[in-house]
Amino acid sequence: xxxxxxxxxxxxxxxxxxxxxxxxxxxxxxxxxxxxxxxxxxxxxxxxxxxxxxxxxxxxxxxxxxxxxxxxxxxxxxxxxxxxxxxxxxxxxxxxxxxxxxxxxxxxxxxxxxxxxxxxxxxxxxxxxxxxxxxxxxxxxxxxxxxxxxxxxxxxxxxxxxxxxxxxxxxxxxxxxxxxxxxxxxxxxxxxxxxxxxxxxxxxxxxx
Length: 208
Known about the structure:
The chain is mainly alpha-helical.
């Protein structure tokens, strides 16, 4: 009896070839060759993020949020002032006409002049109110143009507030100081918020 006969049922079974490594597992590398990771291929390095992507600010800085609220508050005051000026202009025009009817010469012209000045003041206040609202809304998506306009607008408002503050201090009345002081505070916040590093980075951030 020969164990080498492949047809002999009592012979030694032939040796099976070694199983191939399963798919998805790293193969055994020969001696001296570093093992490969993954599916037999070297692992690729991770792709870097977009320039500045990790440093991009996701939310508006707190100082800019405060300046934005102040712009909306100032716009409300300016719109109210525009309405008041229009109302005063109408009163002046009616008073001039009534005075003319009573025989007071020149009252109609004086009333019309006061009404004209009041209407001009109302238009200026309404335009400034519109600008304040526009700047506040543009804070979320605006760029350098909005930033520069806000700085100039806040600085001019601060100058006007300082003039009113000096007048109030000269008068000696506390009620004449509170309003200009609040106005100057708002103007300072609106002016410096886009200038500090967090505000500058917000307006210079990339937009996709």
